[in-house]
Amino acid sequence: MIDLHRLHIFHTVAHEGSFSAAAERLFITQSAVSQHIKELEASLGQTLFERGWRGVSLTSSGEVLADYARQVFALIAEAETALTNVQALASGKVSIGATPGVGVYLAPLWVQQFRARYPKLTVSLSTGITSQIAADVLAHRIDLGVVEGELDEPLPARLAYIVLDRVEQQVVVGFKHPLWNESRVRVDDLSKFSFITRQPHSQSRVWLERTLKRHGIEPTVGAEFDNLESIKRAVAVGMCVAVLPPYVVQHELEQNLLHAIPVEGSPFVRELKLIWDRELRFTPITRAFVDYLNTQYPNSLRTLHEEV
After folding, report:
1. Which CATH architecture has domain 170-267?
2. Could you give the CA distance from residue 67 to residue 13 in angstroms, rounded to a whole number?
3. Do 89 and 59 form a contact (C-beta atoms < 8 A)?
4. Burial zone of 35 (CB within 10 Å; 0-12 exposed, 13-18 middle, 19+ buried)
5. What residue spans in the chain does CATH classification 3.40.190.290 cover?
6. What is the pTM of this model?
7. Tens digit of pLDDT for each residue in 127-180?
8. pLDDT at position 84 over 80
9. Architecture field, domain 4-83
10. How far is 4 from 69, CA to CA, in rounded Å?
11. Phi then psi for 20, rounded to 5 degrees?
12. pLDDT band at 305 (very low <50, low <70, confident <90, very high)
C-alpha cells in the first residue's frame, strides 16, 4: 500500500522539479526527501524520477503515479472543503498577493469585511508587480493573486485567471492644469500635455504607452514615480496629467484635490484579474475568501466554482 505521506512528498518533488525545492517547501531536509523517494520506488519496484544535475524529471512510471497523485489530493481537498465549517475554525490563514493599486486601495476593505465574517482567521496580504504576483502564485508562496496589469504571454499552463472587473481608468489633473474645468476631452487632446507615470518597464507604464501609441501619441513623461501616492500628489500641485483607476483617486476627487476628465471613446480600460494555480485545489479558507469576493464581483466569479 502506498504511504500517503510519501505520496505527498513525491507529488511535491514532481511539482517542484527538484529534491531541494521540495525539501524547502516541505520544511524537511533534502536527504529526508531523497530517502522517502527511494523507499517509495523500492516499494513499487519502479524508478519514478530521472536524476540530473539540473533537477529531476518524471519517468513514464512517475508520470502515471503523478497523475494518480493529483487525483488523490484533489479528492482529499474536495472532502476537506465539503466537511470543514470555516466559521467554526479556531485559526487559519489565506495569503493574497496584489498589485499596488489593489493592495492599497481595495484589499484593506476586503480584509476588514472578510474578518468581520471570520474573526478568527488571518488574511496575509503582500504587494508586488504583476509578474512577481504570478510567480508567487505558481511557487505557492501565496494562495491567490489580484492584479491590475496584463499577464505576460504565453501564460504558464498552470496559471489560471478570471476577470473580476473591467476598470475604466481616469485621466486626472490638478487645479493648475488647463484641463481643470473641462468636462470631456478627446484622446488626441492629451498629446499636448506631459504625463506623470509609473517607472519604465512597469506593466502600468507599458500599458499606458501602448494605448497612447495606438492613438498616435508618443507621450511626454514629466516625472516617474514607483508609487501611486507620489503620482497623485505631483499631479495635484503640478501641470501634468496621470491616468489612474477610479478607486485610487476617489478620495482626492471627493476633496476636490484632483479633477477627473472623461475621455471620448473610453480608450483607457484595464482588467482586474484574480489569478491562481489551476493544479492546486483551494483550501476551505481560500474558498471562503473567494466566496467573499463573489459578493463584490458576482457576475465574474459565478463560474469560478465550476473550475476549482
Report:
1. 3-Layer(aba) Sandwich (3.40)
2. 13
3. no
4. middle
5. 170-267
6. 0.79
7. 999 999 999 999 889 999 999 988 988 889 899 999 999 999 999 999 999 999
8. no
9. Orthogonal Bundle (1.10)
10. 9
11. -65, -45
12. low
Positions of CATH 1.10.10.10 in the chain: 4-83
Chain centroid, CA 30 distance in Å: 30
Average pLDDT over residues 114-134: 94
- DSSP strand pairing (220-225 vs 55-58): unpaired
Q: Could you tell me what percent of the chain has a pLDDT over 90?
A: 73
The alpha carbon of 159 is separated from its chain's Cα centroid by a whole number of angstroms, namely 10
Q: Give CA separation, 284 vs 13, 61, 191, in Å.
A: 24, 32, 50
Of 169, 167, 103, 162, whose CA–CA distance to 299 is shortest? 162
Q: Are strands 170-173 and 122-127 parallel, antiparallel or unpaired?
A: unpaired
Superfamily of segment(s) 86-166+271-307: Periplasmic binding protein-like II (3.40.190.10)
Q: Rounded to whole angstroms, how far apart are CA atoms 32 and 212?
A: 55
Measured between alpha carbons, how far is residue 141 from residues 94, 202, 208, 275 in Å? 11, 22, 30, 13
